[in-house]
Structure formats: structure tokens, C-alpha cells
Queue: 3 jobs
Job 1
Amino acid sequence: MRVVIMGCGRVGAGLAQQLFREGHDVTILDTDAFAFQRLLPKFQGRRLHGSGTDDRTLIEAGIENADVFVAVASGDNRNILASQKAKEMYGVKRVVTRVKDPLRAELFERLGLETFSPTKVGIELARDAMMRDGSMRDGSMRDGSVRGETGAAGEGTR
């Protein structure tokens, strides 16, 4: 699979390295040349210094032949703009966009962009950790009841 990743922060660098290890053809681009230092020496994919909103940079990155475009730069606006370009102008079939603001992520999902919100994911993970086995640490259940000693674990959780 040919993948173009915009943003060589922790997420972009980690994703690029994982996909490369799995045998994919990976190009990662960033406006900050020093960001590529996050990549391990074993990473043999392409590194491209430039903006994912710039047509020349996208073409040099191989966007016209990409199977997937992933936008994980630091700003929502840049991620959204680059993703829309990849999808609408260059016909990339699979476009994945990080949008930190959960409300904006939902809006852009409705407009046809595949998004993920680290804020929303973090909220869900924290809540799940807090509610393991259907109970909170004080023994109360999600529905406000208190689990008795004779009740089955998880009873009353819906």
C-alpha cells in the first residue's frame, strides 16, 4: 500500500515506522526538517520537507498514486485542508484526518472525511478505565445503584 503521511510528530513518526515495518511504501512530510529526527534510523521510507497543503509538495510525495493519505499535523485546519485536497483534487480513496476538536471531527465526518479525535478517544479511555467491570471504585454502578454482595458482577449496568 502506498501511504502519504502529513506530520512527523509522535503520531506521524510512529505510524510511518509501523507501516514501513509492515512492508508498505511510506512517504512522510513535515514543514519542520528537524521533525524527521523522530524517525528511527531503520526507517527507509521517504522523508519530504514541505507542506501537505502545497500542491507541488503533495505531487512530489506521490499523492497522485497514493492509496492512503493520513493528516496528523499539529493544526486541525491544516489537516482538514490537506485531507480535502487529497480526496477531492487527487482522488485518494482513503483519507484519514486527525481533528483534535471532537465537535469539528463529527462535522467533517458528516462531510465525508474519515476523522479521529484524540480528545474524544482520551475521554473514552479515561471513562472506560474508571468504569471497568461496570463499577466505579466506590462500588456504585453506572446507573447509580450499589452492587450487593450477592449480586452478579455487572448486574444493573444497563
Note: Residues 145-158 have pLDDT under 50 and may be disordered.
Job 2
Amino acid sequence: MGTRWSLDLSGDADPQALEALVQSELDAVVREMSQWEWDSEISRFNRAEAGSWHVLSPGFFHVLRGGLAMARVTGGAFDPTLGAVVDLWGFGPVAVEHIPPLPDALAQALALSGWQKLELDETSRRARQPGGLRLDFSGIAKGHGLDRVARALEQAGHRSFLFELGGELIARGLKPDAYPWWVELEVPPGADLPPVRVGLLDMAIATSGDYRRYVEIDGRRMAHSIDPRSGAPLVDPPACVTVLHAECMIADALATAITVLGTEAGLALAEKAQVAAIVIERDGQGWRRTLSSHARAMADL
């Protein structure tokens, strides 16, 4: 998946067998959901003819259905159908000539996008390509990958572990000392903030940061997160948003949505959804960290 992973596991296990198990699950996610793979399931769907229906693999269907559910919950702040827009800004696999994109090209990409254009047939596990719509699971696939690995480890009989993939974490069970898996939450590079630790017990953590991928236009840094309303990268978004949830896929999507909404509206969403969220902002004088009520209850400050 273009990133490194690590596994801390309690009990005896064959390291080679563990590595093979984890890697097979991650390779399956790439085959299904990577826009960088020409023959992946998502790439085939994105190239499909208008009006065509497609039977989806169980994992792909789960992520697509979950992404559309998160789009509804967040009022479209999370939208997994913005692939055409993402590509125009140079964040996808397609080489681009103009950044920022030409206005007509951006308007056309926005017209082809939108989560409400997508139809699902849950009975037969199918999705309809409305024509020109490009799915982009970059805000949700990694979280799904962690969930998938955790499920595979549990099915193999492992009950106590901490798995990390590209900065996202998922934990199951207690450590041998009967304590949760204590981890320190991510902060942006250079942020002068005291550490915050949380104890993970059957929980996951996902973080969205504007310092990970961005473009610079006229000296302004624009994050890779796209505002679905304007079709443009966010300007001066929260520097870092961390969400804790039992399902890493949901934490992943919510971290993106809170970033798009901004601190006030994003934390209001977190309170409504009853999830733990931590937002770090640059405030002109330094850094400010704000925790939702659920995050304050969980954090060791």
C-alpha cells in the first residue's frame, strides 16, 4: 500500500507466517482499491461505460457502502467519488499539466462527481457507473486495510496485538501485563505541544494531517484533502485531526470529514457521532489542541 507496517503481538507465533498473513490482506486491498493499479477493481469501475452495473467483491462493496454512509452522516464532507477532481490537482495517478486546474476542467470534473449519483444494489452487491464518475478511496481504504488485518489475525487465533500501518493503529485485547495498548497521539512536525496518550482496547486511531501531502501554489500550501463544495484543496485547514473508533475505516473517514469541516463544525460532528476526536490548529501564535468530550474522557493529559 505504499507504506510500512508493524505488528506488536502477544503470545507465540511464527514471524514468517504472520508476515505472509498481513501482507496477503494488504495486497488484496491494493488489488481492489488502488487507483495506481491499472487493473484494480476501482480502476476498472472508473473506466466503465455509463449506465453499466458491476458486481463488486465483498471488500470493495463494504468500503463503498461505508463510504456512502459516511457521506450521508457528514453531509458530504467526506465523499468517495471525487477521483476526477483529485486527479486534476495532481494527487492521483494521472499526470497533469495545469495546477491549479483550468476552471472549465474543474467544473466538468465536479459535474461528474458526487456521492448521490452512485446507485447500489445491496441484494446483489452491485454498483452502477453513472458515467465518468471516478471513485477515490484514499480517505478510507487504509483504515479498511487495518480492519481487514485485525480480522484476519483474530481468525488465526490471535487475541492481543497492536497493528500499525502508515501512522494508523488498531488494537485488540490487553497486553500481557493486563493493561491496554498505550500509544502517544500524533502531532504535526514542529508542534510544541505536550504529549497526549490514550489506552487502546479494541479501538483504532486514524489521523489526517495537512503536512503529509500537499501542493504549493503562489507560496501557499494547499493540503491534499479536497473540499467537495469547491473542488479545491483546503487552505489553512486544521493541521492535524485524530479520530478514535472501534472501526478504523470509520475513524479514517471521520478524520477527513472533520478536516474539511474545520474545527468548530468538525467537533460538533464528533459530538453528534459520539466519537473521540482531537484537532490541532496553527493559531498564528503557535499551536492549539482541542479535544471532543469523548477524547477528554479517554486521554491521559
Note: The longest strand covers residues 220-227.
Job 3
Amino acid sequence: MTARVRSPKATIRDVAAHAGVGIATVSRALNDDPEIAPATRDRVLEACEALGFRRSSLARGLKVGATDNVGVAIMSRHAPVILNPYYAEVLGGIEEVLEDANKHLLLSSLKRRDDLLDLASEGRVDGLLVVGCDVAPEILARLRDVDLPVVLVDNAFDGIASVVVDHAGAGRQAARHLLEGGGTRFAFVTENLENPNFRARLEGFRSELLEAGASLESHAIAAGGDSWDGGAVAMRRVLAAMPAPPDAVFAANDPAAMSAAKALATHGLRVPDDVALVGVDDIHLAARHAPPLSTIRFDKRGLGATGARHLLDRLAGREVPRLSVIGTELVVRATSRGDRVAR
């Protein structure tokens, strides 16, 4: 007889490890997939019994979409996502589409990347939207094998339907604008350089400068950490490293740009008279900033809505594009000498 372990919080991951199979196999076994070998199904059921893992009736209804629940997982290791204006707009687009389809939105803000596999495999949702790029490739590879419709929003991975922003294009637009405004000494500031979307913005910015015969020196690139003053920390590092202050700064997002502006002011540098400044995202505060912030805008609500529509199509058995790209546009305001920019 198998000894029962008192573990009321056992997850499908625990069952998979105990049975020596993958998470996807556990999900299929619990859904009575006829292709699962009887011996494998027995091992999974024995593991459930040993760990006290209850087979949810939701899991049995997963393949026919019986729950009407759609999971929305936001991957963020840092500040609560509800305080992030970027995520608020993306979620607004998702919510609108799901409401129109009479689906229930189950929002999860996940800090542990492995939690994503649990959410995808436990049978609580009919489909899953994964928002954000802070997901390890090995986790996405395993998510791809889970028997659940999944769509990535603002991230891309082979074999999973994805909706992304042209982040490199945003960087190129910023570079062209700052070049046209007369910039000669360029800098890039961000909260972190681990974020692949921020790196794409940096690479687009740098490549456009190089094509124009300008340069972005390594000491003119800095990250200040994931906090509200990360842009200011990065800006101070750039000012300390460059022989002369930059006259054109591209920030990876609007919060970093607004924070960097404070550091520039502390050093006696005026925006835009001494330094032109451009951010990305066009959050609501950008237009209210003093002076109003030039930025690269993209349709954040449309990003979320597109992902939600693709997931509904997948739930209905319809084909969806492997990759959908949301374009960007330059919004010229007071921080980048808009009156001098060539049209």
C-alpha cells in the first residue's frame, strides 16, 4: 500500500515529479486522454493519491471549455502590477474583449516563473494569456507542451501564438528623431538590461545611430535598477562616465525618462535646452510631465485586445497568426525640441 503524504497544497508539478512524467502528461491523464498508456495513467493516479492531490472536475471539463474562465498571467518580479500604468492599459484591452465574449477573467500576478506551469495545468481555465517578457525560455518550452490554448502578449516564442510590439522599431524612431533634432552625444538609460524588450529598444536605437554615422558608446548606456528612481540612478551613472554630458537621451520607458529628467535637473542640465529626452509607452503621465515628455507610442489596449481575440479564436478551433506585430509612432512634445525637428 502506498503511504499517503499529508500535503494539501500539492500541485500538478508535485504529481508529475512523483510519477516521473511531465506536467503535460499529468494533465492528459487527468483528462482521460486515450493516447496515454494505462500504466502511465495508473502511475499518475497513484501519485495523486499519495500526495493528496484532488482531481478537479474543472480538469475533466478543460478540453470542452466548460469553465468559461480565461487566465491572464502577468509575469513581474517587481512592483505590484496593478500600480503599473502600462499593464493597466494592456489589461483594459483584454478585459473588454473577454467581457464581450462572456468569459471570466482570472488575473494572476506571478513572481515565481514555475507558477505559470501550475496555472496552465491545473484545469482552472480554458485558455491562458501570458503578459510580459519575464519568462525563461525553458518555461515557455514546457508551456508549449501543456494541453491548453496559450497566447503570449508582448513576448514571442516558437510554437506559441504571440502578439508583440516592434520594440526595435521604437528605438530606431527615437534615434531618427534625436538625430534630426541636432543630437551629437547620445545616451541610453533604463531600469534594467535583462528585459528583452528594453534590449530590443536599445539595439534598434544603436543600429539607427550607427547607420547615420553617429555612435553610442558603452559608457553612455546604463541601468539603474527596478525601482521608481531607476532612470535617475542610470542617468547619474551616465553623467559620471561621459567626458561631456549627453545632449540626446533615449530612455527605455516613460518612467525611466521622467526619473532621468530629475537627475539632469539636479546636475544643472535643462530639458530640452541642454538635453533632448525621449521615452517609450506614452503613459498618461507623459503628457502631464513638466515639460511634457516626447515618447514612442503604441496601442497598449490594442495589444491586449489582439491577444485576447487570438485566444478566443484558438478556443473556437480557428487558426491564428503565429506572430502579430503592433507598430509604434513618435509623439513629439516639449522634451525633444519639437519645434526644431525636421518634418
Note: The CA atoms of residues 187 and 220 lie 5 Å apart.
